[in-house]
Amino acid sequence: MSSQPKRVVALGWGDAETALALGVQPVGESDWLAFGGDGVGPWAKGLYDKSPEKIGTLEPEYEKIAALKPDLILDVKSSGDQTRYDTLSRIAPTIGVPKGGDQYKISWQQRTTMVAQALGLAAEGKKLISGTEAKSAAAAKAHPEFKDRTITVGSRTSSGWGAYVKGTARIDFVQALGFRNNPKVDAKAGSAFSVPVSEENLEMLDADLIVMAPIGVKAAKISSDPLYKSLPAVKAGHSVVFDDPNVSQAFATNSVLSVGYAVEQVVPLFAEALK
């Protein structure tokens, strides 16, 4: 297509993977999770013919971006900062956080649609979305035991425990598999991605299935914690603690490629934990 941009710089979290899924290789990208190499997760491995120039994440180097002479800049899953957007727009046409959208909270479907349209590949984008949604639907159909079971998707960092709330990527993901988010967590939801959970209130995590991700700590910090082990779901074996960082990072990236990868990786773990 003659109108398709030839030189794309992808700055938003997972925007490069979205372009790659559509067959477009960015000349520059931001590596949000410090994967190294081509700056993408294993779900996008081998999709670059030539490694892209690396650009900073929260503070992109505008001169470096300009030197790449982009036709289009993707900054879709981003802070939405107006100064950032204005500065990028002076370099090249920029696709930023959608109007009225929250920073870093865009769904993978909306992001794929926006990037595909900007690349002149709208039909290909629709096909990608339906194919990935079909993976979740097939998993849900194959596992009727997931339907309407309550789930807590949480994390533990060096500063404490937390649980993700409705409307965020991780919860959208498990809901597509048939689960229902822990209502005790949703009752505490504010504008943030997650709610903090104090050790005194750790029983709030209890649900039919508890799924926990270690962030900046070892998985054992969760699985060997006496309070965590005392939760009814954990005692019953209905708990999954991700010990593969790629799985947690697939959720965090929330691109059309990483979501498909996450379905393949976690559905067997969820099914085993609910036996």
TrEMBL record:
Which protein family is it in?
A: Belongs to the bacterial solute-binding protein 8 family.
Keywords of the record, alphabetical order, are: Signal, Transport
Spell out the InterPro entries in the cross-references: ABC_transptr_periplasmic_BD, Bact_iron-sidero_bind
This chain belongs to the protein called Iron complex transport system substrate-binding protein
All copies of the Fe/B12 periplasmic-binding domain together span 7-274
Carries keyword Signal?
A: yes
Give the highest taxon in the source lineage.
Bacteria
Subcellular location, record wording: Cell envelope
Q: Which Pfam families match?
A: Peripla_BP_2 (PF01497)
Signal peptide range equals: none
Q: Which organism is it from?
A: Streptomyces pseudovenezuelae
